[in-house]
């Protein structure tokens, strides 16, 4: 997971950085390959009614972005509260994805095919799968379900849906074969 910490009108304190790193490790432990990027923004504000600091977490997940904002007098409790809310939102997103997956598995698996990743080019956002009948199937990063292209490696077993594109067979969706 990529982490970026930004501050505005305030110096980043060591205690804040330690707490951010702890929370990042929790996210990695609980949501491996789900949270792709995380941006933490801490800003000292002059708004007396809303407190002295504004904290924003922006988490990039496959096909979505989650934003949590908090305002208050002290940064440390804001970090705890914001990361708690982010964790709850991640759990809810995963629950909804599992439910949607259950609903589509029966119909999706009827046309499912099995293959192995032959090549992955994360910087170009594409890769190739070798099908069971030794054909090469193209896939784009947008076809990936519940996994990032950075997490794929050559030799990974996958399940995919096949369609015919302008330049031959391509995967309309790809997920790990668990």
Features:
alpha+beta; elongated; OB fold (Dihydrolipoamide Acetyltransferase, E2P); RHF-like; five-stranded antiparallel β-sheet; 2 helices; CSP_DNA-bd; Double Stranded RNA Binding Domain; 178 residues; four-stranded mixed β-sheet; NA-bd_OB-fold; 2 domains
Description of the structure:
The chain is of the alpha+beta class. The chain folds into 2 domains: 2-106, Ribosome hibernation promotion factor-like (Double Stranded RNA Binding Domain, 2-Layer Sandwich), CATH 3.30.160.100; 111-176, OB fold (Dihydrolipoamide Acetyltransferase, E2P), CATH 2.40.50. 30% of the residues lie in helices and 40% in strands. It has 2 helices and 9 strands. It has helices at residues 14-30, 75-110, and strands at residues 2-8, 37-44, 53-61, 64-72, 112-121, 126-131, 136-140, 157-165, 168-176. The strands form 2 sheets. It has a 5-stranded antiparallel beta sheet with strand order 7-6-5-8-9. Strands 1-2-3-4 form a 4-stranded mixed beta sheet, covered by helices on one side. Strand 6 (126-131) and strand 7 (136-140) form a beta hairpin. The protein is elongated. The two termini are 22 Å apart. The mean pLDDT is 88.
